[in-house]
Design a protein that fits this description.
alpha/beta; Rossmann fold; two-stranded antiparallel sheet; 37% helix; globular
Length: 185
């Protein structure tokens, strides 16, 4: 099982989630793809992901993008899993604090919600001073990311396996090209 964890305000309809789904299907492994549409509250998202991990027949491999990378880092520590972290958010409680009080819209639907201090508090509660189990983490960054500072992730995950690519963007343009590598990790 591969559990894809999407980013902030995203969904299972995200390009990378769908690319992974098609990649697995082309290999006769469509049954391995799991990508829930996560609730916007971090505590609820972690509860849903934890339930999927705890009820899985085999321990899943995690792939997390952006905020999903932050969630994956938390979950791999709790459940001793492996994860590929793609342009992950580092300390998102601090990063997202400036948007408290703003209305947010999901990328793939018309659903909106107000981002509150509770969201920030829940993210801070999940944060780690330093990542645990760095050898269970494969960090994949593109230094053309204009949404998050790739240097923050490179420094924070300095003891993890790392691949840093020139150019690209926050969506990670090389995702299809690294799927074999992620699968072998």
């Amino acid at each position: 099982m591969i559990l894809y964890i999407h980013g902030f305000n995203s969904s299972s309809a995200a390009d990378k989630a769908q690319d992974l789904k098609h990649w697995l299907a082309a290999r006769g492994r469509a049954f391995e793809w799991i990508c829930p549409d996560l609730p916007h509250h971090p505590a609820e998202a972690i509860a849903l992901l934890s339930h999927l991990i705890e009820t899985a027949d085999t321990p899943p491999k995690l792939i997390g993008s952006s905020l999903g990378g932050f969630y994956a880092s938390h979950l791999l520590t709790r459940y001793d899993l492996k994860a590929a972290l793609i342009n992950p958010a580092v300390h998102p409680g601090l990063l997202l604090r400036p948007i408290v009080g703003t209305v947010q819209k999901y990328w793939h639907s018309d659903t909106t919600y107000t981002f509150t201090q509770q969201h920030v508090d829940e993210l801070i509660a999940l944060d780690q001073l330093a990542p645990a189990k760095p050898l269970n983490q494969l960090l994949l960054l593109e230094n053309g990311d204009k949404t998050l500072a790739w240097q923050d992730a490179a420094s924070y995950y300095r003891d993890a396996h790392q691949l840093i690519f020139q150019g690209g963007n926050h969506g990670f343009t090389r995702f299809k090209a690294v799927l074999d590598l992620i699968d072998q990790f």
